[in-house]
């Protein structure tokens, strides 16, 4: 789809990354994930009923329809636009690829938390954190706010940046959007509570499979970026021993994938992530990752953002190296 400028998929992805870094996701423009969410919500209301077996089967069907439908719709749209004029397909694919990324959104959300903590405005920092996490934030102090921000930046480096990059470089916008459909399904119905345990089973399992390799590759590129940052004088980052510690600790996380970037960040920064979270008043204990050489503070959020940027740059360089263009 990139013939007009002979850029190839790798060049198109570079432009998409630049576009996301500059403008992010403007609210004035339609976003594919919003459409996915509307379809998922409608199907869930109509199909999430009956016996446990029936709900599981219908959840599997919904998962297949949403993911395959997203891929085929994107592919057909780009094919049709290419038949009209190659530039139309090129511009559409650029926009679709950029919409799959969340670098600016994640960066800006974390910076808002840092700015509020720097002013000593804990209520505003709690509100900013609540925009990006599902846990209760009303009574959190600086250390717990910082932990929540560090954890969400680490985890969403995979969901919002490196995994979409991985699938985009394999199959362009259609495959990247199919991944976003998987991720959206998991975020909407992939829970283990009474309502979704059966209906969202397939969505949760497919998300685990889709993120398995990107999560582990991201942990590696985070470590490689830490080596560079350490060489540039970032003494708050300690790569030594982080690989072995992450390999040991990541499987403790309840998610088969989230533990890898979180454990790596914890060990690179010398902090401890995990612990006690509250969700709508209910206590949830998470495995503790990392050895706490220092208490968590706002500075660790900024350090995590530096690792995030180094991580996705390394991921793109490694993954894009095999692009035939």
What class, by secondary structure content? mainly alpha
H-E order: HHHHHHHHHHEEH
- Label the overall shape: globular
Overall pLDDT metric = 92
Main β-sheet: number of strands, strand sense, barrel status? 2 strands, antiparallel
Helix content: 55-70%
Content of β-strand: under 5%
How far apart the termini lie comes to 12 Å
Describe what you observe in this structure.
This protein has 325 residues and is mainly alpha-helical. The protein has one domain. It has helices spanning 8-23, 32-47, 52-84, 86-99, 103-118, 122-130, 142-189, 201-231, 242-249, 259-269, 298-320; strands spanning 273-279, 282-289. A two-stranded antiparallel sheet has the order 1-2. α3 (52-84) crosses α7 and α4 packs across α7 (142-189). The two termini are 12 Å apart.
How is the topology of this model organized?
Blueprint: H1 8-23, H2 32-47, H3 52-84, H4 86-99, H5 103-118, H6 122-130, H7 142-189, H8 201-231, H9 242-249, H10 259-269, E1 273-279, E2 282-289, H11 298-320
Antiparallel strand pairs: 1-2
Compact overview of the structure:
The protein contains eleven helices and two strands, in the order ααααααααααββα.
Considering the chains and any ligands shown, give keywords for the structure.
11 helices; globular; disordered N terminus; mainly alpha; 325 residues; two-stranded antiparallel ribbon
